[in-house]
Structure formats: C-alpha cells, structure tokens
Amino acid sequence: MLWQRLKAIFVYLWNFRYLPLKYRWPLIKIRRRLVPTRTGLGLRNALRHARSLQHPPEPNPYLFVLRLLWPFPTWRFPATLPPPPREIMASPERVCCQVRDIMYLRSMPLWRARDTPQRSFYRIYEAFCAADGRMITYETEYFWRRPGPDWATANIPDPECRDPEQYAVMASLAEVLAESFVWRLELGMRRTDRSIISRSEECPPPFAPEVPPPWTAKVPALKKKLIIDPEEEDNYFDSPFHRRNIYMATGWFYTV
After folding, report:
1. Is the pLDDT of residue 181 over 80?
2. What is the superkingdom listed in this entry's lineage (predicted)?
C-alpha cells in the first residue's frame, strides 16, 4: 500500500497535475525534450513485451532487457541446430506455441539487431517440420525484409547435419527460399521495401537474383519417402522438396 501511494504521488508530480491544463502541456513538452521516453533501442516496448513471453516465460522482464543489452561473449545470438524432422513432427505443438512469442521478439529492435539469418533459417525449418503454415509465412516474410548482405540466401551457412533427413530438408528449404525470393523480385518487389511495380510497366526493373547456398548441391535425395504433411502425399508440386522425396506443399513461402 505504501508503494502504491508513493507511486501515485510521483505520477501526480511527474505529470504536473497540480497545474492548470494551459500550463501543464508546455511543461510536459519541455520534459519530453529533456528526458525522452522513447529511444531507438525500444527499451520500453521490449520491457512490456517481455512480460508477455510464455515459451519459456521470463520470470524477470528487467533482466531479460538487460540481457539484450549485454554484448558478451558475442553480440550475435548463437544458433543451435534444431532436432531432426521426425522428432519435431512427433510434437509439433512445441513449435506452434512459439508463434506469439516470436512476434513479440521481432518487435524489439535490440532482439532484431542480435538475430542472425541462421537462427531465422532454423525457425523456418522448425515451422516446416511442424507443418505450421502461418509460422512459415511470418518467418519467410521476416527473412525477406532483412536486406543486408548477411541475409542473402546464398550466404545461409551449411548446417552440416548428420541426420540425412534433416540435411535434405534444410537443403531443399534453402533452395525453396531462394526460389520464392526470385518470384517476389520478378513481381517487382525489392527486399529494401515492399513496393510493387505498377501494372502499366511491362517488366520489373533489373535485379540481382537470389541463389541458394553452394552446399545444397551436395545434398542427395532421400531413399525413403519423408511425409511432412500426410494430406500432401498424393499431390505433386515440382519443388526441391519433392526432388528429394520430401512431401509438403510450398505455397506458404509464396506470399506478398
């Protein structure tokens, strides 16, 4: 009760509520210039969203934000190789329940600055193995809107998987990602913005096509069929997945 009382007094003084409105607003404007409440780091929003994280929940949102500011041992977040496809397929809910939290994390400038293309690529892989089309779309759009050279599809690092099914899925995924980006580029979209050419233009402006990373060429097709989504087993769509004997639709990668 004492803390709530002190907080109420502080808010009362901080917002100049003891003054008439015509004097209050000029003072609030001066206060905002001297003590800005918003910065490019987005700490306030990060703190608010940290309270909403559930998988796993953050016991202390202030410590979570402080960890975002902590640059050691490296500034970039480490990337951990996800489980093999069949392990994710056995419990897809563990991946699907993270969609809401990932949306919160993407709204944090500090988190985005420390995120890496390899981590995003692994999230797409997990969503693919969980057959979560919504998460595939969100993460593909997120990857597309990161225009830096590190985020080029040609620079996706080799995961060097020991599991042949996992290696085949990731190689196909990198190739589909590059193909879907070329499809967007041919529509006139660019990774630096979301603009599309007008219908009056006959062809889009020239662009450098996205290409898959070189390591995908050495990954062979699976000898045994891998069915990610049973509903797609009887359907055939010419894609890197089907060429490697993996059955799953790719429409979730092609959105605008």
Report:
1. yes
2. Eukaryota
